[in-house]
Amino acid sequence: MSRIPTAAQQLALDPATVRRARALARKVGGPVVRIAKAHTTVSVERATLRLAGLAGADVEGIPWANRLVDVVRDQVGLEHGVALPVWDAMARSGDDLTVLAQKAAAGSVTFRVPDAGAARTAARRARSAVAQGFRRIDRNRRTREKLIGRYGDPPTPWVYLIVATGDIYEDIPQAQAAAREGADVIAVIRSTGQSLLDYVPEGATREGYAGTYATQENFRLMRAALDDTSKELRRYVRLTNYASGLCMPEIATLAGLERLDMMLNDSMYGILFRDINPIRTFVDQRFSRAVHARAGIIINTGEDNYLTTADAVEAAHTVTVSQLLNEYFAKEAGLADWQLGLGHAFEVDPELPDSFRLELAHALLARALFPDAPLKWMPPTKHMTGDVFRGYLLDAFFNLAGELTGQGILLVGMMTEAVVTPWLSDRDLALQNVRYVRNAAGNLREDFRPAPDGFIATRARAVLGEAVELLERIAADRGNAPLLTAIGDGTFGLMKRPADAGRGLDGVVRKAPGYLNPALDLLAEGATR
Amino acid sequence: MSRIPTAAQQLALDPATVRRARALARKVGGPVVRIAKAHTTVSVERATLRLAGLAGADVEGIPWANRLVDVVRDQVGLEHGVALPVWDAMARSGDDLTVLAQKAAAGSVTFRVPDAGAARTAARRARSAVAQGFRRIDRNRRTREKLIGRYGDPPTPWVYLIVATGDIYEDIPQAQAAAREGADVIAVIRSTGQSLLDYVPEGATREGYAGTYATQENFRLMRAALDDTSKELRRYVRLTNYASGLCMPEIATLAGLERLDMMLNDSMYGILFRDINPIRTFVDQRFSRAVHARAGIIINTGEDNYLTTADAVEAAHTVTVSQLLNEYFAKEAGLADWQLGLGHAFEVDPELPDSFRLELAHALLARALFPDAPLKWMPPTKHMTGDVFRGYLLDAFFNLAGELTGQGILLVGMMTEAVVTPWLSDRDLALQNVRYVRNAAGNLREDFRPAPDGFIATRARAVLGEAVELLERIAADRGNAPLLTAIGDGTFGLMKRPADAGRGLDGVVRKAPGYLNPALDLLAEGATR
Amino acid sequence: MSDVVRPYGDTTGDGMVQLSFTLPIPHDKRAEGAAAQLARKMGLDPAMVVHAKAMGPDFTFFVVYGAVSHLVDLREVEVVERDYPLLGPKEVNAAIKTRLRRPLVVVGGCIGTDAHTVGIDAILNIKGFAGEKGLEYYAEIEVHNLGAQVSIPDLVERSRQTRADAVLVSQVVTQKDAHLHNTRELSAAFREAFPASRRPLLVVGGPRFDEHQATALGVDRIFGKGTTPGEVASYLVHRIAPATPPASPEHRRAS
Amino acid sequence: MSDVVRPYGDTTGDGMVQLSFTLPIPHDKRAEGAAAQLARKMGLDPAMVVHAKAMGPDFTFFVVYGAVSHLVDLREVEVVERDYPLLGPKEVNAAIKTRLRRPLVVVGGCIGTDAHTVGIDAILNIKGFAGEKGLEYYAEIEVHNLGAQVSIPDLVERSRQTRADAVLVSQVVTQKDAHLHNTRELSAAFREAFPASRRPLLVVGGPRFDEHQATALGVDRIFGKGTTPGEVASYLVHRIAPATPPASPEHRRAS
Ligand code: B12
Ligand code: B12
Ligand SMILES: Cc1ncc(COP(=O)(O)O)c(C=O)c1O
Ligand SMILES: Cc1ncc(COP(=O)(O)O)c(C=O)c1O
Which residues of D touch C72 (CB under 8 A)? Predict the structure, then answer.
């Protein structure tokens, strides 16, 4: 059997152009990282409290983390972080965190920003409390590694399936059924609207729309159920959710605490598709990515979303640009290559001549640029119609492209994409489709040899060229954060999102010189105490 | 765009092995041709009368051609052919052919085998009458060529669709609808059981089971309807039927007379699958192929059928052997390469690992062995189930294999294969499938480069090797027609069919020295008068 | 063509249909019988259960073919036909100019938690849909596209501020009838916030709406999948700037 | 598990099903309404016509999704359950040997114009089906497989000659109910040719038969898709060489 050339060889990419693309991404991303470091957000602070063990909610369902952060903010502001005032108050009162939050919510606690010895005490105690959270995250990571060690990892592409009933108790049997039929990864889709909630709902939930609320308890229930199924199947079934929206840092934290394995986490999705303030997003994102890095969680980025509003051929290079930026931000936050499930999608209009070869070109380009990342390959959605037979066909070619181009994570397409959130049977049929393609034609990869001067390689190089051009245009801006200007100008997904507008802006706080966040410290140091 | 290597290059076939395979086919087929030349059959004689214009049937629906041949046979035998006695009787009575047949049926004609001058007269008149039939066939061929010249030929693979309602008046609109949706070729499937009728039914028919009777009038009606549609679409839509069963020569003749464009016509199908006597089959087949050659009709052979009873991997080489034999017999009968729609099929068990690549190997082998023949590529049938979604998927990969391996005629698969004869909507969906695959991935052929030492090429060479072995084993038989021995032994499709049994044997007659058949003469000479 | 038709498999009148579904029972002979029972209740006779597949221990998927006995009576088909003339952009602008004598104000968005803006953008944004420009392109239409996930109180507020003639709302997520709930809330809120005579025209759209349900949902009109901007513009002119004012003034505000 | 279930889309009790069919009418709004009407008559409410495509000027293809209101009552499901013990080849042979004390004679084939022999061969030939050997493999069963397209008179004749205990007939082509017609002809012919007490057992099989119809078609048993030779052998023993002879002798010939 002859050796398969790498994607970069197949496409004859110019290594200098590739280097240039990465350098530009760094140039464009750097200023944003500096801004992110200079700010905190309510959600980052709440995540810190959650790491320290603060859970639960008041009778109205508002989490204690929110109540406490709000009171602290009201009284002393957040520019020093929540840790100093909170552990200072605890030191003074002797209360534990939950009791403190309850008392604070009742209005019976007075916070201050401690200094000198009090500050040192508060800082030490805060660090020790937060470190417990990280030790739990670390334990989870070891457990995952042990289980994977025991069962072995499935071959790529990993089969990724969604459940989306809105009811965790319907989701669970459906997820287990999907796993039994061959899913390697289960994603529980979130309810519409959760991303705009500035708190994480509590408890097991049954009333989501087109998705189920991401809650710590739902995470726990599903992970436990899939652990059972993993045992039954002797195959570790991964669990995915969404670290996005206004509570990105907290959800990332809960994911670590409950041993989720992958999280949707994009550097710009919230900005573009949820109109979340850009600064809020970049701050939250940096924190959540650092947590993911620590937790051994694979992130999935959201480039596929661009292609649901923009044209997949015209906008192909924006996918590449976003992948490069996501890579830069991810690595800056500590994620390793194997954790970068960079997104892209099979969304070329199927009526276009050579549409399948265009898909192959785009998919190979991503493969070539990020050879060590487990690319997340998204199925057709935009051009799916109510013709479920045609849908089943398109999904087959999507599956084939995934095999031919060595994608890492295959988000399995559903024939009912344009109709309903997936039915149990849709998932079963979809898996049958994947299995057939993989079993019958997976090795066709050996026979697939796009010529360096052929249609596919030429197209891939053209897209890379356009991506470099776009990055150059962004970098040419003389402002102090060209990327923010570009986002404000509608460069991505045709959406204009200025840095001083959007949801969640009021939750952004510029750090004061004495700002303390033990979580960030523990993350930066990789420390466990 | 880089040049695509030929299939033979891709597979690195050894030219000496290919030559050896052909030589063996000739060695095995030659004795059968000698036997075929030494015999005539009732259907060959009836076909001769039909060429001379004898049509119509008695009140019970028995064609005059049958009535006349039966009477002649009863009175003087068929070993001199029907022409001499019939035209001799006409010369004596002055009747035309139909009147003679009617009178003969009524018992009022006495036939003789004329000699000397009477024989010469009869022979001359017979030839002149039969020549009229050939001139009509020739005119039809020119008309077809003119229409194709006017509209151009569609790209390959030609899209071939079946209609099978049993009612010519339902078939017609369905065929027209299929043509409008993109069918290049329409096949009207025959009613079950017609192949065992020793006469061709008359007139327009509405009562077939799982197919429509092949009659001259049905041929005419459908051809006229498709001519209308061709005009509307400015694309020549070809029409196909079945020259097989006990009336193979007559149906071939009617096809020529009514400008059908393709005919199913296999050298062994009737023997194996209909238990028709081998000698009868080979005699009938030689006549019908000569007529097809003359009429410019493309034949479709039936190797696909083997794979519905035998396993497509185990029996792959029997397909190759049959193709080689069909090619030998076809060329001997005067057919050109472009008329050889040699059959094969996508019937590997889809559960087998690499099943799609096995299909590619088999399909490329056929392509490599018969580079100038418009191979007929048949869809999955055996492994189709009631799961119509899965069926639609398998058909997509069948379509893809057709494109990747350059098949000539694509018999479009139906998702309802295991359920019903095709519905109107099945055909529409099937064509959508073909169109998508062709448009999106047709050019993938350029990127498909099986390595000479790879799985595909190795498999193809192995199948060719087994085919040569099998031919050698057959040829090793010391009898005077080793192929007949092999057929009798169950070499093909596991069916044992001895040469002295089977249906229609009583319609076989060894020619006497004075045997005359002006049709055979006109065919051999290519003459028009 | 007759007014009464039946489904067509391959022969006129054969009544053939294809059906698939899941039953929450393990796959065995009884399950196949249960599938046939359901198919018969749906009117298939005979019903052929041509495929049955276990999906885990608790569910079975079926494919059924068969002939339904039901007749489709074309005379009884109710269609929401276009009851207004289809105008080109020039005609729309002219009609508004001469009849309304001020720009026609439209406020649009996706309400609730729905974030699918592609549909409403197709109607409102210049780019448009299916080759037709969106309402922003019309000189005489003033468009306020509020985008995704607009709360109903915000929408009411913006409609008041802009003195909107029409409110255009898109609903794409339909799971658990989200679109129906949201639409009912929408109409209730507008009925509460505005006197009948000043309430803006309420128009909702989305791929899974039943166009017949407008009255039931308390809105003026529903547009389904494949709607083009021109249809919407023409409808707005017909209702807000009609050639002859409607007999009863209905719920149009004084201009 | 409850005895009453509904189809399952993604939530217990949602009743969701998928449906597709063609109507012989041109594609327009009325056609979509007609499709919805049919779906409603089948019990879908709401019925979503999610896809409609013109197939030429005279036909339209539809895909419909929706919830059916019908309940499936598992208690009412009728299943032709195996009412005989499943025996291995050894047991079958032993039973025939000890109880019948002569080989059990079986004649089989495809009647009418049907040439699909794979099914009957799967039951009769040594090679068998699904890993089970066919009846030829059983030492105590004498098999006469007549193959394809056997005429009914021939079959009667051969049954008489061979003194067949059972006649096994396969019917795969079902278009225009060919299988039903042929089976009725078969049973009529055997009833005419044999006195009730000497008529061989009539067994038919094929992928599209309804196993409940045996009595209606005048045969003793119907076997559907996926039948294995062992089931057939066990049934034959049960009927022809039963452990305790049947209460009423029925139509078994004196041996
Ligand atoms: C694009 C898309 C997205 C994009 C949306 C980007 C954007 N800015 O709009 C992204 C990726 C962000 C997205 C996200 C989600 N999506 Co989405 N998405 C789609 C997709 C692929 C296409 C929808 C579309 O753009 N259609 C094209 C437009 C032009 O068509 P249209 O909306 O029907 O509009 C036309 C008419 O209906 C009408 N019309 C529509 N609105 C209006 C309004 C008025 C006033 C008028 C007059 C006319 C009108 O005119 C338009 C032009 O003809 C569909 C699947 C599909 N192929 O349909 C799923 C789909 C709609 N999404 C779905 C879901 C569940 C989601 C999520 C909720 C999943 C999750 N839990 O994370 C998220 C969250 C979104 C949210 N909070 O609402 C489901 C909805 C299921 C259901 N029936 O309830 C679908 C059907 C996919 C599925 N099968 O699961 N999605
Ligand atoms: C193989 C095949 C052929 C082969 C048959 C070779 C042969 N020697 O049998 C060939 C290529 C010759 C052929 C030809 C035709 N075929 Co065909 N064929 C098929 C195919 C692909 C598979 C059938 C099969 O072998 N199944 C496997 C066996 C093991 O399954 P089975 O028959 O169901 O048998 C099992 C049970 O039913 C049961 N059983 C069956 N019989 C009996 C009998 C007894 C006594 C018992 C106890 C049990 C039993 O036990 C078996 C084992 O479990 C089907 C499509 C499909 N995928 O199903 C079409 C199909 C059956 N064929 C069809 C047709 C129409 C034809 C033709 C008539 C087309 C034509 N007009 O030319 C021709 C002519 C044949 C004729 N005169 O009958 C149609 C029938 C449509 C319908 N429902 O009426 C089908 C469904 C294809 C289609 N969709 O159009 N065919
Ligand atoms: C990267 C990313 N984040 C989040 C989401 C989910 O959207 P929401 O924020 O509405 O839950 C998506 C949608 O698929 C996504 O791709
Ligand atoms: C070569 C060939 N001849 C004839 C037929 C048709 O069979 P019958 O002879 O029963 O009409 C087929 C079946 O597809 C075939 O492949």
Answer: 23, 34, 37-38, 41
Q: Where are the domains of chain A?
A: 52-131, 155-455
pLDDT reading at C63 higher than 90 = yes
What DSSP assignment string belongs to A208-226? Answer: -SSS----HHHHHHHHHHH
Measured in angstroms, how far is the CA atom of residue A264 from the centroid of ligand 3? Answer: 7
Q: Kindly report the nearest CA distance between residue C33 and chain B, in angstroms.
A: 16
ipTM of the complex: 0.94
pTM of the model: 0.95
Q: Is the Cβ pair D74, C21 closer than 8 Å?
A: no
Catalytic annotation present for C97? no
Q: Which of D41, D53, D90, D127 is catalytic?
A: D127
- Residue A423 to chain D, least CA–CA distance (Å): 5
Distance, CA D210 to ligand 2 centroid (Å)? Answer: 16
For B388, the closest of C11, C18, C48 (CB atoms) is: C18
Q: Which of C18, C33, C43 sits opposite D41 (nearest CB)?
A: C43
Ligand 2: which residues within 6 Å by Cβ? B 164, 189-190, 192, 210-211, 273, 305, 308-309, 381-382, 384, 416-418, 420-421; D 113-120, 122-123, 129, 168-170, 172-175, 203-208, 223, 225-227, 232
Three-state SS annotation for chain D: CCCEECCCCCCCCCCEEEEEEEECCCCCHHHHHHHHHHHHHCCEEEEEEEEEEEECCCEEEEEEEEEECCCEEHHHCCCCCCCCCCCCHHHHHHHHHHHHCCCEEEEEEEECCCCCCHHHHHHHCCCCECCECCHHHCCCEEEEECCCCECHHHHHHHHHHHCCCEEEEECCCCHHHHHHHHHHHHHHHHHHHCCHHHCCEEEEECCCCCHHHHHHHCCCEEECCCCCHHHHHHHHHHHHCCCCCCCCCCCCCCC
Q: Assess A452–B contact: CB distance below 8 Å, yes or no.
A: no
Cβ-based neighbours of D164, under 8 Å, separated by 6 or more:
D105, D106, D107, D144, D158, D200
pLDDT in tens, chain D (255 residues): 689 999 999 989 999 999 999 999 999 999 999 999 999 999 999 899 999 999 989 999 999 999 999 999 999 998 888 889 999 999 999 999 999 999 999 999 999 989 899 999 999 999 899 999 999 999 999 999 999 899 999 999 999 999 999 999 999 998 888 999 999 999 999 999 999 999 999 999 999 999 999 999 999 999 999 999 999 999 999 999 998 765 554 444 433
Q: pLDDT tens digit string along A81-102?
A: 999 999 999 999 999 999 999 9
CATH topology classification for A155-455: TIM Barrel (3.20.20)
Identify the structural domains of chain D with CATH numbers, from first to last. 4-74 (3.30.30.60), 89-240 (3.40.50.280)
Residue A304 is among the residues annotated as catalytic for this protein: yes
How far, in Å, are B47, B122, C145 from residue B82 at the CA level? 10, 11, 87
Each residue of A252-300: pLDDT tens digit? 999 999 999 999 999 999 999 899 999 999 999 999 999 999 999 999 9
Q: What is the pLDDT of residue A484?
A: 96
CA distance A69 to A78: 8
**Neighboring chain B residues of C12 at a CB cutoff of 8 Å:** 170
**Catalytic one among B376, B392, B395, B515?**
B376
What is the three-class DSSP state of B444? helix
Is the Cβ of A453 closer than 8 Å to some Cβ of chain B?
Answer: yes
Contact flag A387-D16 (C-beta cutoff 8 Å): no
What mean pLDDT comes out for the span B116-144? Answer: 98
Torsion of CA A310, A312, A314, A319, to 10 degrees: 90
The predicted pLDDT at position D254 comes to 38
C63 vs B388: CB contact, 8 Å cut-off?
Answer: yes
